[in-house]
Amino acid sequence: MIRFENVSVYYMKDAPVLRDVSFRVENGESVGLIGANGAGKTTLMRALLGLLPHEGLITVDGTEVTPKTLPEIRRKLGFVLQNSDNQMFMPTVYEDMIFGPLNYGASREETDARVDAVLTRLGIADLKRRHNHKLSGGEKRMAAIATVLAMEPDVILMDEPTSALDPRNRRLMIRTIRELPGTRIITSHDLDMIWDTCDRVIVLGRGSVAADGPAREILQDRALLEANCLELPLRLAGPDGT
User: Fold this and answer.
1) pTM across the whole model
2) Domains contained in the chain, CATH given
3) Element (H, E) at 58
């Protein structure tokens, strides 16, 4: 489904944020992307979406990510931003959810059916006609996911989905992520959430892939995590965090 081959990503010429990154994500996988601040997690997602210049090969479902193919690529990818305020730009949840499908050519009847199905699946049908500026942080995060799901992407990208959520909304988010269809790539500093939602973990460190393997194996490797400025998930640490 997704392939990175010897990829370097730049914000400024001759100063790559990511260097020689290679990995594959197969259809249906749930992959956690972890690393310290500045390791390049969000940068990697932005490169996948064609938002940053890169060297090397990035493909989605066999199609190379290039300026020419971006419309096709972005139909396959749904990106849930860390800050929902940067994603929800229409007055109501309903208007946000119909914007993408209608602009991609879906009929109003089909779009309305998608909206109702997604809201029901997520258990937030009561938010349909709510104004975005009146939603709580947790409600807005769920609405942002609903907006992406209404596009019916093949791959869902999520950037720090549990950040700033209270315990109840964090539990709801974890349950929602586990039930999402398709391929998922999730960046997070919340390693307990990654433990609960991902089968595989890719560790980014110093601008490259430091490790890639089964989630439970990597998330229990104290030496590996500490070498990349990370700590064990709280469930595995002692009462004093050690």
Assistant:
1) 0.90
2) 2-227 (3.40.50.300)
3) strand 54-60
